[in-house]
Amino acid sequence: MTKEVRTDIETMRAADADRHKVAEQLKSALDEGRLSLDEYDDRVRSAYNSKTYQELLLLLTDLPRPGLSATEVRARREAEERREARRLPTAMMVLWTIWAALATVNLVVFGLVAATVDGDVYPWPVWLLAPGAALAAVTVGVQAIRHQQRR
């Protein structure tokens, strides 16, 4: 009969140093006014009675890192939301990557041909502007739709 061993960090046993570190974070939260004295006492008691990392992490889940003000936390959250809103969907990123690779190959080949041929060379890479423009239009449309859905 074999025991299944879980390697999740949350199920690992915590050390005294880990408990002390959490107690210090709780003290910072108390000093910043995020916890009342009763909450602090309860959480510190729980921290020193915790056996696993999961029990310790639960004591900190509703607290920001020490030293962060509510304004900084809100600003970081809003910045992350803006960054996420600007991010293209994966399918669009794949299409842009394919287009860029094709454009690069065509431009390199055109440059090599133009450098090695004595006469004029038809500028075939200009034909890549049509799918590029179509892809740009679709990208703008997708982003506009995503922006409206967020409102």
From TrEMBL:
Keywords assigned: Membrane, Transmembrane, Transmembrane helix
Keyword Transmembrane recorded: yes
Pfam families given in the database record: DUF1707
Domain (DUF1707) ranges: 12-64
Coiled coil: none
Origin superkingdom: Bacteria
Transmembrane segments annotated in the record for this chain: 92-114, 126-145
Keyword Glycosyltransferase: no
InterPro entries xref list: DUF1707_SHOCT-like
Protein name per the record: DUF1707 domain-containing protein
Source organism per UniProt: Paractinoplanes atraurantiacus
